[in-house]
Amino acid sequence: MALGPIEVLVVGFPGSEFNGAILPALEDLMDKDIVSIIDCVLITKNDDDSIDVIEIEEVDTNSDAARLAALIDEGPDLLSDEDLDEFADALAPGDSAAALVFEHTWAKPFRDALVGSGGVMIANVRIPGLVVDEVLAAMEEEV
Length: 143
Prior knowledge:
It is a single chain. By secondary structure, the chain is of the alpha+beta class. It has one domain (6-107). It is built from 5 helices and 4 strands. It has helices spanning 23-31, 64-69, 81-89, 107-116, 129-142; strands spanning 6-13, 36-45, 51-55, 96-103. A hairpin with a 5-residue loop joins strand 2 (36-45) and strand 3 (51-55). The termini are far apart.
């Protein structure tokens, strides 16, 4: 079966303080078949600027990260070493991040209908919500 659109989301945790608070929101999205997480890698930048990369299935079974690991629908490894290095560059020493690769499962029926109708995708632009908020705030200041 073909995958839906794939997106990579890198979420940082200053001070490496991952407490699992995002998990209920992820579980809800998955329960509603909006997204499926197909891969996850944990990245930590140590105080000496060295990087530790841990595949999610390698985490301690008694951690909040293990609860995240249980949500993963194993898919292809889509993150390269170069991707992980780039994500790690954005971290300060002592910080960590989770790189989540997820499929937009909600889009699969639309994709199938589009293809079935003879339509073709011309563009797909994603604008982060924070960018939209900044633009709207700037527009309000101009008024």
